[in-house]
Design brief:
alpha/beta, 5 strands, Mannitol-specific EII, Chain A, single chain
């Protein structure tokens, strides 16, 4: 399943209201909950936090891809959060993170999860594209950019 197939305004939030890493994780999981994509907030948040405790998913260039496996989902779920001012997310390069892509997949389905991570990594290589996402006025604009409309 391509990331583009998961895109919808209700899974995008810009700007995030969080100021720190734990709050970002909660806010991203809440986006999925509010969009009706998950039923068990605590289970999904716990899985995401456990994965993050192993090693930060804050990459370079202002991007983080928090992700986890959870039996609480039956298919790949994604939420996107944008923090134009940046949030300290323990990124590899030490810089603030502005783009957050949360991925949650069922434990028995690695394929879509890995494919989505690869697609996000590819998107992240375009600094101009990332700037456009960060500067998007609203969720609709983010969806439009991600779909290439």
């Amino acid at each position: 399943m391509a990331v583009i197939e998961l895109m919808a305004e209700e899974i995008v939030k810009t700007p995030l209201t969080s100021q720190d890493k734990p709050d970002v994780l909660r806010e991203l999981v809440q986006i999925l909950m509010d969009a009706g994509r998950i039923d068990n907030f605590d289970s999904v948040l716990s899985a995401v936090q456990e994965r993050e405790d192993q090693m930060s998913t804050g990459l370079e260039g202002g991007i983080a891809v928090p992700h986890a496996k959870s039996a609480s989902v039956d298919s790949l779920k994604m939420a996107i959060g944008i923090a134009p001012a940046g949030i300290d997310f323990n990124a590899l390069d030490g810089n603030p993170t502005k783009l957050f892509f949360l991925l949650v997949a069922p434990p028995d389905k690695a394929g879509p999860h890995v494919q989505a991570l690869a697609e996000i990594a590819k998107l992240a290589q375009s600094k101009a594209f990332c700037r456009a996402l960060i500067n998007a006025e609203n969720a609709a604009e983010v969806v439009e950019l991600m779909r290439g409309d």
